[in-house]
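Subject: sequence -> structure tokens, single chain

Hey, anyone have a minute? Need the predicted structure for the following. Not urgent.
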Amino acid sequence: MTVIGAERLRAELNDLKSVQRPKITVAIAEAREHGDLKENAEYHAAREQQSFCEGRITEIETKLAESEVIDIGKIEPMGKVIFGTTVTLYNLDSEDSFRYQIVGEDEADVPAGKISVISPIARAIMGKREGEEVVVKVPAGELNYEVEKIEHI
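Reply:
Had a minute. Here:
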């Protein structure tokens, strides 16, 4: 995962532990005061929130522990597409240009120009150099691109 992706996960983890978890604890305590827990919708909703929150905390902690954080700015440019690089692609069919950064699965956000390393486009362009053409197989058929520019930012 990228440095920015790791920072976002750490920020979410901090929010879940220091803000959300205490709110949920208070909500459970208040719901318990309303009496019979079997028919207490507020209690069950708060417990469900607690379950989701604890599950997400575990998921984020596991991802952070098992992931390798890559700072593309510290990698010497090799002139080819690797994880973390930002790539400008020229669509040979539509004559449009697209700019994408190749990121981890959790960081992918196509409208923001971030594609997952396991996406068809990223897999097709990995290891390519500027000026190389590539055919990307997608469910709708094939897309023909040329790698215009590779940036380490």
